[in-house]
Amino acid sequence: QSYDLTMLQNFLRSGTDGWEYARASVRDLLMEADLHADEVGGDFAAEAERLGGTVARLHEDLAQALETDTWGAAEVTRLADRLRKRLAEAVATVPELEPYAATLGSAYDALATLTTPVPVQRMHGDLHLGQTLRTIGGWVIIDFEGEPAKPLAERKALDSPIRDVAGMLRSFDYAAYSMVPPAEMSSQERHRVDEWAERNRTAFLDGYTAVRGEDPRAQAVLLRAYEIDKAAYEVVYEKHNRPGWVNIPMSAIERLVTA
Fold first, then answer.
1. Model confidence over 216-242: pLDDT tens digits?
2. What is the DSSP code (8-state) at residue 113?
3. What b-and-e string marks burial along 190-229, b requiring 16 or more CB atoms within 10 Å of the CB?
4. Are 138 and 118 in contact (CB under 8 A)?
5. Per residue in 72-96, is it b (16+ CB within 10 Å) or e — as a string?
6. Which of 176, 194, 231, 243 is the most buried (most CB within 10 A)?
7. Cβ distance 145 to 162 under 8 Å?
8. At 118, phi and psi to the nearest 5?
9. Are 56 and 207 in contact (CB under 8 A)?
């Protein structure tokens, strides 16, 4: 027997899409050819910090309301194996990833050596700026269905909240490069949008840490592994849905390889 499900929620009349809000800040930066990210009127860092706090509170609420667990070395090794498999599938779909596969995979080798327990819980699962709204009452997180390409059982599985953090960090980088195609940027423009992305990534992490009391940067190996996994996912997603945008996550892959 099948059922139709309906969800009702409040209409956020004052809501502004977080993705477009961030891209407007990048636009303001590129319009001012001689200013740094912190000197432009549309500086986004304060909002990024508030958003980090909102995501931290979301993770705290989910941990209190739903199941939690801890992964030991065996579970972390299985995670590394899953990420290697996803990378192999991405390379098969997008051969342009092949030159970077070995270096990207080394992040999963490092992950497999972790012995520190990893707390896991229910989390958003597909967190990025497009899943946020800025309202007069603060930031709101929406769309909790997880990555569309994953089966439901995998979307519901417990995972580290660091995955959500990595998704948002990738989104700042994505927004920075979405206004002008990377191949058409001057070296100065690349430097300035990189500066914008790093400024907002740092602000987001600072906001998250201030609320939760746990700095994701202290889990650098796990954070890097999830960032690489997200970037590879983005390449495949754009290949299937917006081929003209593939160069944006591909440029991120290049930067992750050299980081």
1. 999 999 999 999 999 999 999 999 999
2. T
3. bebbeebbebbbbbbbbbbbebbeeebeebebbbbbbbbb
4. no
5. eeeebbebbeebbebbeebbeebee
6. 176
7. no
8. -115, 110
9. yes
d(CA 21, CA 68): 33
Measure the CA–CA gap between 244 and 248, rounded to whole angstroms: 9
H-assigned helices in the chain: 18-31, 45-65, 73-93, 101-112, 152-156, 162-177, 187-212, 220-241, 247-258
Can you tell me the distance from the alpha carbon of 240 to that of 253, in angstroms, rounded to the nearest whole number? 17
Tell me if 174 sits within 8 A of 248, measured CB to CB.
yes
pLDDT digits (tens, 9 = 90+) for 190-215: 999 999 999 999 999 999 999 999 99
Q: What angle do CA 68, 72, 74 make, to 5 degrees?
A: 125
Q: Count of residues for the chain?
A: 259
What is d(CA 21, CA 48) in angstroms, rounded to the nearest whole number?
Answer: 11
